[in-house]
From TrEMBL:
Entry keywords, A to Z: Metal-binding, Oxidoreductase, Zinc
Family annotation (SUPFAM superfamilies): GroES-like, NAD(P)-binding Rossmann-fold domains
Protein name (database record): Alcohol dehydrogenase catalytic domain-containing protein
Domain Enoyl reductase (ER): 8-342
């Protein structure tokens, strides 16, 4: 198979022919149909993720066709088209039994703790517990674009913050996660404000239905949010993992508001100066979230299949495997709206 390999931090990906993976017990091998390029892949590329052992094949936002089935798999057969969460839970521990697969102690993370889907094929562990059938009419590129960004946003809004229709949602960061939160929030009946520093991204968010767009370079964005929403947002999503936006997200909330930390803090941002006075006086709730349990895929896919939300605007570029290096490097600076999806795995 052909894979894009990363030998070390900030090195160009190298296309290599590797042996085809073998289906593990309880797992399957997929022919990758599409794989998103995510900011979390950029964290791997930068070398800030402590779980990564070099060399590695990145890529964790994928869908594919089953080409091989390991011993003990009961739900899947060769030819099935499936999608997987980026956290592959064991499905058997107490946390998994309670529906909390994202905190499974035996979890496997393709692209982080094992080889990922920047490749023509990928081995997927714990297939029965994690895979979900891909709707026949769904474009594989869209399924991959859901990846960790849309699924994480969905779980943040519905599983953590319990966003309600008519509430104000503010999103800090108009990248893949942020735009997903915008589209899903509107589908849930919320009014949405978007904060970013790239005018093109804010314009795009406005086109997608953001009622308020705020350029964080123009003064105090938290104050602007409070003024635009008549006292503050009910729910804030922080989608960058940066101290400045986390603090502003908290300060954007009205009393009894809820903030979800979706962006992954890394490097110097692992420890942040949080305004505890705002949390205390506002009686705010702060949630962390990471991924989405596999059992929540049907609710998201049903929303899409029912025509309640169109997520195709997320896809900005369909690229070749050989272009993955350039897409990773592009995360070094704020870029154009939309996400890149690898759809060609022949070079």
């Amino acid at each position: 198979m052909l894979a894009a390999r990363l030998a070390g931090p900030r090195q160009p990906l190298s296309l290599q022919e590797l042996p085809d993976p073998v289906a593990p017990a309880g797992g399957v091998v997929l022919r990758v149909l599409a794989c998103g390029v995510c900011r979390s892949d950029w964290h791997v590329w930068c070398g800030v993720d402590p779980d990564v052992v070099w060399p590695i094949t990145p890529g964790h936002e994928y869908c594919g066709e089953v080409v091989s089935v390991g011993a003990g798999v009961g739900r899947w057969s060769v030819g099935d088209r499936v999608i997987a969460p980026f956290i592959l839970a064991c499905g058997q521990c107490p946390d998994c039994a309670a529906g909390h697969q994202t905190i499974c102690k035996s979890q496997v993370l393709p692209g982080f703790t094992c080889n990922g889907a920047f490749a023509s094929h990928i081995a997927v562990a714990h297939a029965d517990a994690n895979l979900t059938a891909l709707p026949e009419e769904m474009d594989p590129a869209l399924a991959a674009a859901l990846g960790c960004r849309t699924t994480t946003a969905w779980h943040a809004l519905t599983g953590r913050a319990a966003l309600k229709g008519g509430e104000w949602l503010v999103v800090y960061g108009a990248g893949g996660v942020g735009l997903s939160a915008l589209l899903l929030g509107r589908a849930l009946g919320a009014r949405v404000a978007m904060v970013d520093v790239v005018p093109e991204r804010l314009d795009y968010a406005g086109m997608l239905g953001a009622e308020v767009t705020i350029d964080a370079r123009d003064g105090d964005p938290a104050r602007a949010v409070r003024e635009a929403t008549g006292g503050g947002a009910d729910v804030a999503i922080e989608a960058l993992g940066i101290a400045e936006t986390t603090v502003n997200a908290l300060k954007s909330l009205r009393k009894l508001g809820r903030m979800v930390q979706v962006g992954m803090p890394a490097g110097a941002h692992c420890t942040m100066p949080i305004p505890m006075d705002a949390i205390y006086s506002g009686q705010l709730a702060v949630y962390g979230t990471r991924g989405m349990p596999a059992h929540r895929y049907p609710s998201l896919l049903s929303l899409i299949e029912g025509g309640h939300v169109d997520l195709t605007p997320l896809i900005a570029r369909r690229v070749k495997l050989s272009e993955a290096s350039a897409e990773l490097a592009a995360f070094d600076t704020p870029g154009a709206p939309g996400v890149a999806v690898i759809t060609e795995f022949t070079g």
